[in-house]
Amino acid sequence: MKKLGCFQACRYSNRMVIAGTAVAVVSILLWGEGILPVLFGVLAAAGVAIIVAGCVIGNRFIVCPHCGGPLYDGPRLPTHIPQYCPNCGTKIEPPGGG
Description:
This protein is mainly alpha-helical. The chain is built from 2 helices and no strands.
């Protein structure tokens, strides 16, 4: 299996956090209305699980391909990859040299 690159991990992480947030918020709003409370409770929990999975992917794989240092500052994950690694200063280019 091919290793997940930092650009691909950032894309996956962002999409999972956005989708999980949308599912959780809509489910919680509908859960509060009393419409099928068990179903929307389960969907809200699934949304939170997707958010957590997206954060785990981001923390694990959004790292410099050269030195392995994190490309994010503290607990906040980036929405994009910086041009240079904050740890080693190496230029970070997307696959294909683009």
